[in-house]
Amino acid sequence: MLNCNAEFTIHFSIQHSAFSIANAVIELTPPRPSYRPRTGYLFLAVMVGHLILISAQVQSKAGVPVLEALTFGVFSRVQLGASGFFRGIGGTWGNYVALRGVRSENETLRQQVSDLQVRLQEQRALAVRANQLQSLLNLKETTTLPTLAAEVIGGNPNSGLLTVTIDRGSADGVQPDMAVIAPQGVVGRIIGPVASRASRVQLIIDRNAAVGAIVERSRAGGMVIGVEGDPPLRMDLASNLADVVAGDVVVASGVDGIFPKGFVIGTVERSERGKNLYRDITVRPAVNFSGLEEVLIVLSPARSAQPEEASKPREGAK
Amino acid sequence: MKAAGVMLALAGALALQTTLAGLTIGSTTVINLVLVAVIYAALAFGPVAGLLAGSAGGLVQDALAGGIIGVGGFSKTLVGFVVGVLGAQFIVAHALPRILMFFAGTIIHELCYQALYALVESKAFRVAWSPTLMQAAINSVIGVLVFMIIESAPGVAQRRRARSATLGRRY
């Protein structure tokens, strides 16, 4: 029986004790009622406090106090999370809730964009037109020929004939067989009948058109005629001995009495030796006939290709 | 009363420690009276008193020593708590267990103290065992002497008997 009056100790013999070493010097006693779990919490709190205190004084490798670096590192994650949270809320609000009036606004903006696109097209067309007129004006100033500006007002509904209608006619001094040119080169000639305020122009790419021509580089002569093909011009009557190569510029020779000499007709695209006496030469026209809008009419009356003496009736023939 | 006693013990230990700072052998401090006071408080009043005494005494000692404040406090808090818990689990009324507690507490304190300094100064952890063991031995002797002196004071024996009687009735 244990002696309760003495100090409450349990004597373990060496045979009965599990703590043989401690038994020799320490007497086992029941836990004191004063020790509670809150002591452990207090211990942890004090130790953490000391660690924080130490961290505040210790410099990290970056030269910043460890406490500051640790606090910043931890709080940066908090900030990151908070920032992501609020960004998510803002994104949800901005992308869903705040988009209620966007549909009507979008429709309004679409309408404005359409209007602006139309206006832009108009302005662009005006700019192109201004450039064309400027080119035409420059041509008019540089050429010594009397010319008259005209605007293409229509094409030919008949696909067999390549003609266009211009807004100048006999009232403006326009006569048949007058040459029509553009800043890029020769366009065609006036063909009758000529109305007072309009006239028709036969394009040089028409299969019935022909222009006296020479190669600008080698001065090799020939005649450019319209063909149904690509390119739509062919240069005939150029000798096989003539020096004509691809890339040569073909200009009007003036021998036809209609087209002024030196105006560009086109560029040689292919030049091969022909089976007969003449070379097979195709010419790419300098003028873009599909985009023809303004032209110049050369007001000089066409001169006959034949000498005046030859045209006069011989006296002896009477 | 208990808190006042602990504070008084700490204050006295600090005063003596600073006064007797010249007690060195081979330029190494061979006595740590504050630690002795902490272990005493832990053994006499339990783990709470031990850890609070260790925390306060260590902080003050760190502040007076000029090092990193908190290292000594951390170590002494740990020692005070551990010794207090052990003192609550085992009867350490005799000299031998007290010597063991003072000795082990000093060793734990030095190990923790050196490890913390090695950690914060990014140095290799190396313990100078000779002065550590010397200090542990001296602290143990002083601690036991302190216990003996206090227990031999008038009225202490009677209070102790009364406490033992109370525990005996309880169990």
Walkthrough of the structure:
The complex is a heterodimer of chains A (318) and B (171). Chain A has helices at residues 20-25, 37-57, 66-95, 102-142, 308-311, and strands at residues 27-28, 147-155, 163-166, 179-182, 185-191, 199-203, 210-215, 221-226, 233-236, 249-252, 264-272, 280-285, 294-298. Chain A has 318 residues and is α+β, with helices and mostly antiparallel strands. Among the domains of chain A are: 101-142; 147-304, Thrombin, subunit H, CATH 2.40.10. In chain A, the strands form two sheets. A six-stranded antiparallel β-barrel of chain A has the order 2-3-6-5-4-13. In chain A, strand 8 (221-226) and strand 9 (233-236) form a beta hairpin. In chain A, helix 2 packs across helix 3 (66-95). Mean pLDDT of chain A is 78; it is low at 1-31 and 305-318. By secondary structure, chain B is mainly α. Chain B has one domain (2-170): Arp2/3 complex 21 kDa subunit ARPC3 (Orthogonal Bundle). Chain B contains seven helices and three strands, in the order H-E-E-H-H-H-E-H-H-H. Chain B has helices spanning 2-19, 33-45, 47-65, 71-89, 95-120, 129-151, 156-170; strands at residues 24-25, 28-29, 90-91. Chain B has a two-stranded antiparallel sheet with strand order 1-2. In chain B, helix 1 (2-19) packs antiparallel against helix 2 (33-45), helix 2 (33-45) runs antiparallel to helix 3 and helix 5 crosses helix 6 (129-151). The chains are: A alpha+beta (318), B mainly alpha (171). Chains A and B meet through strand 1 and helix 2 of A and helix 3, helix 4, strand 3, helix 5 and helix 7 of B. Strand 1 (27-28) of chain A pairs antiparallel with strand 3 (90-91) of chain B, so a sheet runs across the interface.
